[in-house]
What we know:
By secondary structure, this protein is of the alpha/beta class.
Amino acid sequence: MKSVSQNLSRVTHQIIAKRIEGLLQPGDVLALIEDQTHKILAKALNQALEDELSAALGREPHERGTDGRLRNGAKAVSVPGFFGRLWLRKPVLRSATPPSPLLAALRRSGKALVNSLATRFWLRGTSTRATSEELNRAFGTKLRSADVSTLTNALLPSIEAWLARPLPTDICYLYLDAVYLPAKKLGFTTKQALLVAIGIDSKGRYHTLGFVFGDREDKDTWTAILKDLLNRGLNRHALQLVISDEHKAIFAAVADTLALPHQLCLVHKQRNARARVASKDRKAFMRDFVAVFWAPSRDQAMQALGQLKGRWGSRYPKAVEITESNLDHSLAFMSQPQALWTVLRSSNPVERFIRELRRRLKPAGAMMSESEVWKLVWAVSTEQERRWAGRRATGYAAILSEDQIAA
Length: 407
């Protein structure tokens, strides 16, 4: 049983706690934490600055010296802190105050922290203006939006090395696509093509392989990216299939440079055919379309195509023509292991990458220079590579042995 004094102490603590809890609102708590944190840090650092000057002079604050160097109070200085700028009192002499290594280190670390955060925020998708405003509000700095772009230029040597890195020699499947980006040139904004190559290796792992940024998407630019991939280690003998949309420039470049089977994206074909069919017949037409390209064998696909032509040929000749066009390139995936057909029927892997690239580019607006493009492409690519790590393309688990999966 507790004594009267123990009960009194317990009740007193409860009353005091309730009074404090009632007086402090969430905003007051944050302000209190900020204020007390600054006071504790400032007190410790001010003492460290005093000790540093005493060590430089070789005597304590109230000791007299024979060298004529006299203390002259302190001046206010500031460094970036976790809750805005941290104000300190730097002790000074009447003349020739020695530099403070501690203060220099604090400023370097604060600047390095702000610079690192500015780079990371921008690479994560925050605009340069929003990045500078938020960091200035948090750390009391005077960062400009142009400064954020300058800070990220420190990444360029690493990006150049990344763009020229050797490629895996066991890439089996190559996905190609392009995205048009707004770019500023000579005072006006124009669209420029960014050509993208994604690959899947023999273990089913995805890789971002290469990029070319040019005025337009033509045979020459596609040939340039393919030759760059070959120069960096892409093995045409290991490569089994190229997958892309039905772009004439891609077809011509692949035929001349790689001379490999070329699979058309069936999602694009499906959309184009569907658009030529009346809404009331679309569901039935799509069932027949799927019966062709999702058939378990090429023979069954050809039978399903004959049924589709007989049923819809007179009513929707354009939709049937689209379905039947480039049939060898539309069924090229059937030459590969059946477990992989799902991932080889379409260019979805590279299109998902491009969607992420568009999302990241949206806050940036028009690109001011080619280096801005490469910084953003590098940021998206490295993040995508991190997401791909440890996972395999659909179907590979069914065709790899346990030893290969473990590797």
